[in-house]
Write a structure and sequence with these properties.
heterodimer, A: alpha+beta, Alpha-Beta Plaits, 4-stranded mixed sheet, 3 helices, 29% helix, 36% strand, B: alpha+beta, 2 domains, two-stranded antiparallel sheet, 5 helices
Chain lengths: 129, 179
């Protein structure tokens, strides 16, 4: 998924702050899951099947900035550009509020569309594949 | 969805193959599978009464399938044409997978009365994206009317759901007469 597990992002008088790429991927993943209309993050058939987490999200880190590439699965019937915009905003807000990084761009790929079967409405969110 | 089922089949096949191979080796190691039995099988293979050419032919077919699989595995992540760009703003770009886009168009085309089947191809001509829908229609329909309806349905729904403007929707009617 990425070459360096960690990269020195911020240095100040007290030292440096490193973020592992997986951390940012996870923040992005959680931010994306909250968006209405996103059924999941797709890593490609085999990764999904083997349950590899955080495939489908690619994080590029430079000094103080981040670019996120993400593949999503959207619910059929939802406006793709609206959902994608919401994903872009959600990821940008999450990463910028939880870290000191500035998100330059969030590139969203809609990799597929699934029909969401109507389920009983329960309080807790169901884990979606 | 299609990709996942295919992945499952291939992975299951490889897994079963590995299980068979390991069981075989364990059997040989503990002499459960005795050598004379193996010799018998090897002899049987050599004595199969099929023309050498036919065996080579069958082997070639399997070989081609295997090589194709290799190509698919390693070639699948190439960019070039797999994604269609919907939007490119300063906060990032939004793209949709080619196959998904075509699926959506086909779904919409089939919603029109009288359309039995639909296949879409996307061509980039002079920086504009043009859609070619090959529609299979039922026998007694008025072709220009259906063509227009397909264009309208696809244009309205896709523009709404994807947020892009479709320049040209070309409908090709393929009316296969079923005996």
């Amino acid at each position: 998924m990425s070459d360096n597990k960690e990269k020195i992002i911020t240095t100040n008088e007290s030292g440096s702050i490193n973020y592992a790429n997986d951390v940012l991927a996870k923040i992005a993943a959680l931010a994306t899951d909250e968006v209405v209309g996103v059924l999941g993050i797709s890593g490609g058939g085999l990764s999904d099947m083997l349950g590899v987490k955080n495939r489908g999200i690619h994080v590029t880190l430079e000094e103080n900035t981040a670019v996120i590439d993400i593949n999503i699965i959207v619910e059929y019937g939802k406006k793709l550009h609206v959902v994608s915009n919401a994903v872009q905003d959600s990821i940008k807000k999450a990463i910028e509020s939880m870290t000191s990084l500035k998100v330059i761009a969030v590139n969203v790929n809609v990799s597929s569309i699934h029909v969401e079967k109507p389920k009983e409405v329960e309080e807790e969110k169901q884990p979606k594949k | 969805m299609k990709v996942r089922i295919f992945d499952r089949i291939v992975t299951a096949f490889v897994a079963l193959l590995l299980i068979a191979v390991t069981l075989f080796f364990v059997g040989v190691a503990w002499n459960i599978i005795k050598q004379p039995v193996i010799d018998e099988y090897v002899n049987a293979i050599y004595n199969i009464n099929i023309n050498a050419w036919i065996m080579t032919g069958i082997a070639c077919v399997v070989l081609i399938i295997a090589i194709a699989l290799l190509f698919i595995t390693f070639g699948r992540n190439k960019k070039g044409g797999r994604y269609l760009e919907i939007n490119n703003a300063e906060n990032g770009s939004i793209r949709i997978a080619d196959s998904t886009f075509k699926d959506m168009i086909n779904k919409n085309a089939k919603m029109v009365d009288g359309v039995i089947g639909s296949k879409t191809s996307i061509k980039s001509i002079d920086k504009t994206v043009q859609i070619f829908i090959k529609a299979e229609l039922s026998d007694d329909v008025v072709i220009p009317q259906i063509g227009t309806r397909i264009q309208e349905t696809v244009k309205t729904n896709i523009e709404a759901m994807c947020g892009i403007k479709l320049d040209k929707i070309n409908v090709v009617v393929d009316n296969k007469k079923k005996e």
